[in-house]
């Protein structure tokens, strides 16, 4: 464990939060060294400096075991088809044949877009999570992308790993510095079962070109990775206990290793953006390929004659958490 991780792991006595935010694109109305966090007194100076330097911050035991149990039970109920969630995407690993919950069916490896399920969405609105989210987005908070990941045991061909990537690749909204992911371990997560791997400091760089990795055994849909990624870059493996939560910047290069254990590895996450952010046109940019892929999938479901844009898809996926929602007002 590196010294960086030691500084963020552990219980911290934190000062009371305020909502002071003058300039939503930076941090305050006065000159400060902080770019990636806002002035609201929730984070300690040490925590702010760590996130500013590294692009991620781990908070120990942020989400209680009781709440994690609720999300786990809801996941199981949906897998058993006892509950149907409108608009949610259920993903299955290309290499999995045996189900965890439903005998004879492929195992569910991920829920995406569970914003219409109030039980799972309650994670995104947890006060203990949102008060940290506000440190990065400011007081106007939108939940933009929701996931519950059920990483399966590896098939032997490393298909359970997730390539190194930047989340901003998928997002047509800005500014990037007012976007943050909250990612919570639902169980003990370590290198054996495929913990997150991050490259500290890469949030200060640019959005890189992504593509599908050319892996034996294939790769799951939408699992794009950085083109010509340099694996020699220094990395941190985020081993976490149940309830531990990492907050990270959308330009931070990260991925996850293969699940070499015999069990499934679960986490729940939400990407948030400032409610006063804005959409951008990604045509002609590195993001055009993923934008076209997403729109094509939506048209397969809704019909070829549907007139829908990449931004429209994200407006549908998102749900307000608190404050203003100017992002989706037009």
From TrEMBL:
Required co-factors: L-ascorbate; Fe cation
Keyword Metal-binding among record annotations: yes
Similarity comment text for this entry: Belongs to the PhyH family.
Annotated signal peptide: none
Gene3D superfamilies reported for this sequence: q2cbj1_9rhob like domain
GO MF term list: L-ascorbic acid binding; metal ion binding; phytanoyl-CoA dioxygenase activity
Biological or metabolic pathway of the protein: Lipid metabolism; fatty acid metabolism
EC number: 1.14.11.18
Keyword Lipid metabolism: no
InterPro entries: PhyH, Phytyl_CoA_dOase-like
Organism of derivation: Biomphalaria glabrata
GO biological process: fatty acid alpha-oxidation
Keywords carried by this UniProt record: Dioxygenase, Iron, Metal-binding, Oxidoreductase, Vitamin C
Protein name per Swiss-Prot or TrEMBL: phytanoyl-CoA dioxygenase
Pfam families cross-referenced by the UniProt entry: PhyH
GO CC terms, sorted: peroxisome
């Amino acid at each position: 464990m590196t010294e960086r991780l030691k500084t963020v792991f552990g219980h911290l006595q934190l000062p009371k939060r305020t909502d002071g935010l003058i300039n939503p694109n930076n941090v305050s109305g006065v000159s400060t060294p902080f770019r990636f966090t806002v002035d609201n007194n929730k984070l300690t100076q040490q925590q702010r400096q760590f996130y500013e330097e590294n692009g991620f911050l781990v908070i120990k035991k942020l989400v209680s075991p009781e709440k994690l149990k609720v999300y786990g039970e809801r996941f199981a109920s949906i897998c058993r088809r006892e509950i149907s969630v409108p608009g949610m995407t259920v993903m299955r690993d290309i290499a999995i044949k045996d189900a965890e919950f439903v005998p004879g069916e492929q195992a569910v490896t991920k829920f995406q877009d569970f914003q219409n399920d109030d039980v799972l969405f309650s994670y995104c609105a947890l006060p203990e999570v949102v008060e940290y989210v506000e440190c990065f987005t400011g007081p106007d908070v939108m939940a933009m992308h929701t996931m519950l990941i059920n990483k399966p045991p590896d098939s032997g061909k490393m298909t359970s790993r997730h390539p190194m990537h930047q989340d901003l690749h998928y997002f047509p909204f800005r500014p990037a510095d007012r976007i943050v992911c909250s990612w919570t371990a639902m169980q003990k997560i370590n290198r054996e079962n495929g913990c997150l791997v991050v490259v500290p400091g890469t949030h200060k760089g640019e959005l890189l070109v992504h593509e599908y990795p050319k892996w034996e055994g294939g790769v799951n849909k939408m699992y794009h990775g950085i083109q010509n990624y340099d694996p020699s870059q220094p990395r941190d493996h985020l081993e976490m206990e149940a309830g531990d939560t990492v907050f990270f910047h959308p330009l931070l290069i990260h991925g996850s290793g293969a699940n070499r254990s015999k069990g499934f590895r679960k986490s729940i996450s939400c990407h948030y953006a400032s409610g006063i952010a804005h959409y951008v046109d990604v045509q002609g940019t590195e993001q055009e390929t993923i934008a076209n892929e997403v729109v094509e999938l939506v048209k397969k479901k809704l019909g070829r004659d549907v007139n829908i844009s990449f931004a429209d898809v994200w407006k549908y996926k998102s749900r307000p958490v608190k404050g203003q929602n100017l992002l989706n007002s037009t």
